[in-house]
Amino acid sequence: QVQLRQTGGGLVQAGDSLRLSCAVSGGIVSDYVIMAWFRQRPGKEREFVAGIGRISGWTFYEETVKGRFTISRDYLQMNNLKPEDTAVYYCAAGRAPNSRTESDYNYWGQGTQVTVSA
């Protein structure tokens, strides 16, 4: 069984940077082919933020974070944070290549709060 454990997060000011980490344990190599980050902003549905192919390393991003966020297999680097980035962030792993769809992800981290003050 794949398990994801998140670290990082916290309260920062607009323009600051923050790194969220996601440690994967358990399972076998075929259990997942893609890692991603999602977030749930206050009063909103959970939404896709960024994804990376576990083997290919190919990355893809939600439009509003392009150029500010960088995903690797182990972390999400967030630069130039804005108040609208305030959310609970989740790392996830799944078997559907290049998916931005929450239901395609089988494994989830516990979530971590990121709060960006103006």
Rg calc: 13 Å
Poorly predicted runs = none
Helix content: under 10%
Largest sheet: 7 strands, mixed
Order of helices and strands: EEEEEEEEEEE
The structural class is mainly beta
Average pLDDT value? 95
Percent range for β-strand residues: over 45%
Instruction: Specify the overall morphology.
Output: globular
Strand runs, count: 11
Question: N-to-C terminal Cα separation, in Å?
Answer: 40 Å
Total DSSP helices: 0
Characterization of the model:
There is one protein chain. By secondary structure, this protein is an all-beta fold. Helix content is 0%, strand content 52%. The protein is built from no helices and eleven strands. Strand 7 and strand 8 form a beta hairpin. The protein is globular and about 45 Å long.
